[in-house]
Please model this.
Amino acid sequence: MGDELKIKMYACTLDCKDPYELAKFYAALLNWEIVFQDEDYACVGVPGTNQGAYPGITFQRNPEYQPPVWPEQPDAQQQMAHLDFAVNNLEKAVQYAVHSGARIADQQFSDSWTVLFDPAGHPFCLCEMKSIFESPHFALL
Model:
């Protein structure tokens, strides 16, 4: 391979005030593991893998973090990104997410997905995509 450039996705990183608490939420939601944590960072990944073996979700301490407003409003903190998760049963997935600590957004725009907020206020979507689960190409199950 020599000097061939290689770039691989490592993680999506979310700012928050308490990385470990947010990592616990996503580890429970996804049935993943906390693969790394210290005072300023935590990372969740697929069970049985080492940090970096698969893309993970990393949480970074930011004492000044302010949750975004969704849907957007003028002069308010805007969402910069959000996570989408494929589910095979939307109703059960939403109930599970709420039981894990999420809250459902007041406004919804589709019957095919539900917008929720994690405990730190980041929006994320649970998207009913049964065909994804039937695909031999879908990873990270």
In short: The chain has two domains: 8-65, 66-136.
